[in-house]
Amino acid sequence: MSMAMAFETSRFYLSRPTASTRFLFSSNLKRPKPVSLPSRFFHCQTKRLVLTPRFAVKACAVNVEEKNVAGKSGEWGKVSAVLFDMDGVLCNSEEPSRRAGVDVFAEIGVEVTVDDFVPFMGTGEANFLGGVASVKGVKGFDPEAAKKRFFEIYLDKYAKPDSGIGFPGALELISQCKSKGLKVAVASSADRIKVDANLAAAGLPLSMFDAIVSADAFENLKPAPDIFLAASRILNVPPSE
C-alpha cells in the first residue's frame, strides 16, 4: 500500500511534469526526501502545482496515470490503495489548528504563539496542546479538558465551508484514484470529530473514502505506524500495496 503520493518535480515549483527527482508526499516531512525511481507512480498533470515545505497541492488539475519508469534500486510493485493524511495534505488545516490552540490558551490567561505548536503538529490534539503547556510550564493543565474546548473553538470558528481549508485539486485527485480502481482512505492522528469537520469544510464527502481511521481508538499516534496499519487491515490491502 502506498502511504504517500509520489510526484515528479525538479524543484519545489513546477508548471509541467518533469522526469527528474521523485518525492514522497506527506505533511510530516520536514524536507523533501528523494526516493528510488518506482516502476509505477501517480503522474500529476498540472495547470499549476506548488509543493510548499509542507508539500501541499495548491492548485492541480489531476490526471492519475500508471507509468513505467526504469528503477535504480527497488520498485513499488503493485499499488492497490492510497492512504491520505488529513492536516496539511487533504486539508489546509494546520494554521487554523494552531490559531485555535492559541485561543484555548488565551482563555486560561497563557500567552502563546502559533509557532509554539509547530513541534507538536500531527501528534494528536492532546499532545498538541499538552506539549505547549509543558514547554510553557502551565501548572495543573488538563489536556482532555483543553482538547474538548479546542474542538468547540475549532468547529465554531475555523472549520467552515468558506474558510479555505480545502486544497484545490484534492477532490479531483481522490476521484482519479478511485476511477483507476484504487481504494482510498484517510489515516489521521486527529480525532474523528475534527476529521469529519475538516473533510466537510473541504468539500470532500465521507462516502468517497473506503476507510477513515482517526486517533480516537489508538494509544500510539504518528510517527508510530499503528493508524496506517489499521487502515491497511480495514481496506484488506497489504501494506506492501
TrEMBL record:
Keywords: Carbohydrate metabolism, Magnesium, Metal-binding
Pfam families: Hydrolase
A GO term, aspect molecular function: metal ion binding
Cofactor(s) required for function per UniProt: Mg(2+)
Keyword field contains Magnesium: yes
InterPro entries named among the record's database cross-references: Beta-PGM-like, HAD-like_sf, HAD-SF_hydro_IA, HAD_sf, PGP-like_dom2
Protein name as catalogued: Protein SUPPRESSOR OF QUENCHING 1, chloroplastic
The gene coding this protein: SOQ1
